[in-house]
Structure formats: structure tokens, C-alpha cells
Amino acid sequence: MTTEKNDQLRQQLIAAVVKKRAAIARAHEIVVRLLEPGIPEPEFLSMLWEIGPSNYCDIVDEREINKLCGYPICSSVLENIPKQKYTICASKNKVYDLTERKKFCSGYCFKASEYIKSQVPTSPLWLRDRETKPSFQLLPRNT
Prior knowledge:
Layout: H1 2-33, H2 41-47, H3 53-65, E1 86-89, E2 94-97, H4 107-119
Antiparallel strand pairs: 1-2
């Protein structure tokens, strides 16, 4: 009887590992796909359920390396990238770190990307089949 339970436990463990590896492989495929320019909005929104926050950050970073705007549905090429790390706003008496902002072609794309990033689920990829899939929203253009 104990051997039967051990076999059953072993099969469950194997199934869990296979499921985890498949989910991670799918997330990697999505990262690679989102490095390309010209991603349609519905396709982009449908992919968000299958990636995690670190995957989204990888997409933004890799797009910047390829001189594309970090916002996955923007096809703009990054030009005139500021060399400085900080900027000073005299009117607000503040210093702003430009490290993340330099990865985007515009303020809108930066805000829209942060808005999407805040919606990406943080739960493990392989456990999401137990959750309700959220409805992802893009940042409206007038913001």
C-alpha cells in the first residue's frame, strides 16, 4: 500500500514539474515574440496572462537594447537618448532619475508601460489555471 502511495505521489510531482516547465517555456516564447515591432493590441493583451513581472521587465530591457521603444505595442525607434542619468526640474525643485524613462520614446509610452506592468499577475505562472483571468486594460491616450 505504501508503494502505491509513493508511486501516486511521484506521478503528481512529475506532472507538477512538467506543468511548471511548460509555463516557463511559454513565458519565454512570449518574451521573444514581444521583442518584435508591430504587435497588435488584442494579441498583446492576451499574452499578459502568461507572463510574470520579471518577464515584462525583460521585454522592456531587451527592446531598449534593440533600440525600440520599451512599450511592446509601440513600434517607434529610440532616437536622441539622453546621456545623463538625472534631470533637474527647477520649477518643482526635484531631481528625476532617467534610467527607466530612457527606455521609451515618449512620456505616454513610459506611463502606459508602467500601467500594464502594474496589472501583470505576480502569482506563479504554473498555478494560474486555478485563478480567474483578469481583463487587462491599456492606458487611454488622453492621460
